[in-house]
Design goal:
The protein is an alpha+beta fold and 238 residues long. 18% of the residues lie in helices and 26% in strands. The strands form two sheets. A seven-stranded antiparallel beta sheet has the order 3-4-7-6-5-8-9, sandwiched between helices.
């Protein structure tokens, strides 16, 4: 293949209007919005103080258990102070409907979506080891019908053991779910592993305890309130 010499191309005088001088490059990217998902962003150092930029993470995956039952998983994470601005409207809507503050409350809620599929919405808190920021994770687990999947049952069991509050609500590095934000889109195995570990140390929870007489799940909410954590149970109807 022969490549023509650059000298063989004709040149023209092109007149440009305006100036190429740009004093503020950042102004060109102010409106740019990463739809999915930035990892924890680097710390911006100034001469006086360190300013940590907020981050937002969204991941989606599907769990298929040994019985062939699917659970659709949506995972979101952000700085604790930014949670009300970063979470989806659907997640925030469920929280508002049930009197939950995702910025402060540790909770697990069960309900049915518009086509009668069972969902479990729960959160947890952790401290980012790189930035030392307090962060919030939100998990939305959706079944294919009105019944709980095996994975959802594990979450219900975990939240019905009060000792698990220590792992999920203290904003320390004890949360076994804390590293999900670093696995990119491959969160399936680390998520299942963390849930299995929490479920294994949780007290026994019989099958009858998952549902009431109307096949409704009785969710547990832990409400973080200053120096202590309150415990209460709410009952949702179809």
């Amino acid at each position: 293949m022969q490549i023509a010499s650059i000298n063989n191309f004709k040149t023209y005088n092109l007149n440009f209007g305006g100036s190429f001088k740009i004093s503020d490059l950042n102004a060109l990217i102010d409106d740019y919005d990463e739809t999915e998902i930035t990892q924890e962003e680097e710390t911006i150092k100034t001469s006086k103080t360190d300013v940590k930029r907020s981050f937002s993470i969204l991941r989606q995956t599907v769990d298929l258990d040994d019985e062939g039952t699917k659970t659709y998983i949506t995972y979101s994470a952000t700085n604790q102070s930014e949670v009300n601005n970063k979470l989806s409207d659907a997640m925030l809507g469920i929280c508002k409907k049930n009197g939950v503050n995702p910025q402060k409350d540790l909770f697990m809620i069960s309900g049915l979506d518009d086509v009668n599929r069972r969902y479990i919405l729960f959160n947890s808190f952790y401290k980012d080891e790189q930035t030392n920021d307090d962060c919030v994770q939100m998990f939305y687990l959706l079944s294919q019908d009105e019944l709980l999947t095996n994975l959802q049952k594990k979450v219900v069991k975990i939240f019905n053991d009060p000792k698990n509050k220590h792992f999920l609500s203290t904003c320390t590095s004890d949360n076994p779910l804390r590293n999900l934000s670093r696995y990119g889109s491959n969160i399936h195995e680390p998520f299942n592993s963390a849930i299995d570990n929490l479920e294994a140390i949780s007290r026994d929870f019989s099958d009858q305890n998952y549902y009431d007489e109307n096949l409704n799940v009785s969710p547990v909410i832990y409400t973080a309130d200053g120096k202590y954590t309150k415990y209460r149970t709410i009952y949702l109807r179809k």
